[in-house]
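Q: Sequence in, structure out?
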Amino acid sequence: MKIDRIQITVRELTAGYEEKGVDGIEGVVAYSGKLDVRPAYQREYIYPDKDRDEVIRSVRKGFPINVMYWAKTGADRYELMDGQQRTISICRYVAAKDMDDLRPYECCYTVDNFFFYNLTSDQKEQILDYVLDIYVCDGTPSEILAWFKVINIAGKVLSSQELRNTSYTGPWLSDAKQYFSKPNCVAYRIGKDYVTGSPIRQEFLEKAIGWITARDGLESIEKYMALHQNDENASAIRLYFKRVIDWTKDVFPVYRKEMKGIEWGLLYNRFKDAELDPIALEEQIKRLMMDDDVTNKKGIYTYVLTGEEKHLSIRAFSDSMKRQIYERQSGICPMCAAEGNAKVWGITEMHADHIIPWSKGGHTTLDNGQMLCRDHNLAKGSK
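A: Exactly. Output:
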């Protein structure tokens, strides 16, 4: 692998800058069309405004900004490996050369209340003549991807899915990112109330692949991506994600904020063919929402389908309640006493227990509490 250092001006970088489609959804090019600013392995544009503005302030003051990395893909053709956020920030700012330029580039912005076209001619020339340092990597695709991972360790840490994307580039990933990874993408619009995370950080894509991976019985997200890397499109996972969201809305038509962030795909995989009564489920959910002993309200949705009480995090006895029950029993385990053993246990040797279990209508109250020795508590829990 060969690495060369070159220098270009902002004028050269921004020449021919174009964001194809909304927010560059169909690609971003610069450097007279010779630089692919957003290849498939790149993250989306996620720069906070304050960081974006500081790039322009540094350029205006002639301060150095970090070196950028390109990969050579052909004769006078390049892919941007590191520095996308800085590159787009510079190009978007310079794109506003006059008022008419603001229409095709709604993402143009001001820095310190000035668009680029508001600057004086000498200020504009100073920006356009600013010199950028670029390292160009010329190697095999595997060498380039390996280097991409190395240079990103020192920058903003890539998410797990962003790193996976570097290894499985191809038509499937390109199509999947159109649906799952763009600002206000289709997956976000239909799933934002049910899925947490950010599309541009690949969290919607990661969630969808995780769910469909579980459905297919595969051991990892990487395995699914490897199997589908060269598929012509990602229609299967797009349709799957939509079915998950549609099923969720049908089974639970009354929306509550607790529904966001539940593993809906895993529940869909398990219960999509079950005969479920949305009205009966809603009555059960409503009752559990009002139950003070249920501390994990989000877990109610999984519980009403699985019947697994662990998802509810039933309220435990407080230390104060344990002490009151312990003193009431004089430190004697009632089950030991029933066996003729009146041993006085230390409070730390005993466990608080519901006399009537929550599943049978019992609540976490002093009247429904007892302190059992460890052995009897374990024996009761195993029944």
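The beta strands are 2-9, 18-19, 28-30, 35-36, 68-74, 77-82, 131-138, 350-354, 369-373.
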